[in-house]
Amino acid sequence: MRQLKLDAFLVHGNDIRQVPVHRENNPTNVERSVLQAFAEYEEASQNVYVSRARKDPLDDIPYCRCEARADWRLTCGADCDNRATQTECVQGYCASRTKCGNQRIQDGVHADLILVKSTGKGVSLVADAPINEDDLVIQLN
User: Fold this and answer.
1) Which of 10, 43, 73, 123 is most deeply buried (CB count within 10 A of its CB)?
2) Strands (E), the chain
């Protein structure tokens, strides 16, 4: 964790009573949590593995039994077994054999979200565009 210039720490031997406390009158301290949240926020466009990614055996990959349709977006709809168990279809193990409507996280198709400063609340996560009924709303941490 990075230390911000706004942070003040006691050195061994210092007395806590000697440190002036005027948090509500000092805008630097009031805004500290917001500034710290933005300073520590790091956007990731894809998953970053800190170790070797775990490989699933081929037998563990869920194969969907949906009926392939002419429009791949309609394949693997609400009646898909994988979708019902909140599992995305894997290319090559899906009825469509290529793409289907149950691969939105893999394709990066989801609602646009942004961080904004909220009055009295610190930082909030809000939608950057209108969200339709069947849109995927996801924030990975």
Assistant:
1) 123
2) 113-118, 122-127
Residues in the chain: 141
Give the phi and the psi of residue 113 in degrees, each rounded to 5: -120, 145
The single residue listed with the structure tokens 């230390």 is 3
Q: Is 62 exposed, middle or buried (0-12, 13-18, 19+ CB in 10 A)?
A: middle
Secondary structure string (H, E, C) spanning 108-137: CCCCCEEEEEECCCEEEEEECCCCCCCCCC
pLDDT attached to residue 13 = 53
Place of tokens 């300073």: 39
Phi, psi of 129 (to 5 degrees): -150, 160
Return d(Cα 84, Cα 26) in angstroms, integer.
Answer: 51
